[in-house]
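Hi support team,

I've been running sequence recovery on a batch of backbones for a student project. Most finish fine, but this one hangs at about 90% for roughly twenty minutes before it completes. I'm not sure whether the input is malformed or the queue is just slow. I've pasted the structure tokens below so you can try to reproduce it. Let me know if you need the job ID as well.

Thanks,
M.K.
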């Protein structure tokens, strides 16, 4: 069943759920998945790996399909046979200062490709945000859900965007974009940022305002993380 749904559908559905939950839950100010100098991103993921290809950023290679044994893989160079619904796990550092953990299941395998679905977690250390006019494509790209709680006077994690104030009846006022922008945002308005987190790690954040309080806001949406090994 999962094979019928594209990753965009999963991400859109996840974002809608996040927006609903974020608007309802009473979380304290701060940011989810973010600590001083570190950011963590985690969520659902689906990949199609062609014969001979590698799972993005991971040491998992699809060799061929065998009717009896299943999908023939090389995981960090070691031979592995995986049948439909079997697990495929990998953990490592595709780029310095990062950790990628994949926890997948085999959705299908044939003479052309291998389908995987499950979850991915990316941890980025030594975060030092820098703004970019746009984010170039990279060999490794993951799109994952994100939610942040940001108090007045704080920055949106992974950006230079500051929440300057909550203006009654007008919304949340932000500043710090790469190009100067009108700063006020109301509930459901977009908050976007393109930049880098550290060398070899770019990020494109596509967020929306899920909740506005007296002195804080909650943002939810999708982040596109691009790694350049």
């Amino acid at each position: 069943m999962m094979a019928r749904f594209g990753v965009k559908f999963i991400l859109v559905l996840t974002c809608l759920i996040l927006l609903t939950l974020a608007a309802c839950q009473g979380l304290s100010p701060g940011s989810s998945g973010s600590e001083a100098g570190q950011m963590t991103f985690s969520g659902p993921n689906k990949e199609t790996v062609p014969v001979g290809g590698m799972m993005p950023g991971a040491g998992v290679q699809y060799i061929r399909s065998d009717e009896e044994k299943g999908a023939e893989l090389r995981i960090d160079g070691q031979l592995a046979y995986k049948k439909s619904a079997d697990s495929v796990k990998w953990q490592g550092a595709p780029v310095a200062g990062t950790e990628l953990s994949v926890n997948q299941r085999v959705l299908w395998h044939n003479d052309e490709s291998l389908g995987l679905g499950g979850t991915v977690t990316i941890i980025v250390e030594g975060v030092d945000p820098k703004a970019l006019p746009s984010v170039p494509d990279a060999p490794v790209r993951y799109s994952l859900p994100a939610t942040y709680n940001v108090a007045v006077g704080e920055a949106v994690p992974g950006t230079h965007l500051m929440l300057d104030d909550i203006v009654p009846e007008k919304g949340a006022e932000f500043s710090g974009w790469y190009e100067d922008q009108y700063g006020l945002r109301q509930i459901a308005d977009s908050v976007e940022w393109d930049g880098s987190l550290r060398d070899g790690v770019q990020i494109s954040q596509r967020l929306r305002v899920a909740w506005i309080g007296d002195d804080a806001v909650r943002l939810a949406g999708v982040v596109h993380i691009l790694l350049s090994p």
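--
Follow-up from support: It reproduced on our side and the slowdown came from queue contention, not your input. Confidence is low (pLDDT under 50) at residues 1-5, 7-32. No action needed from you.
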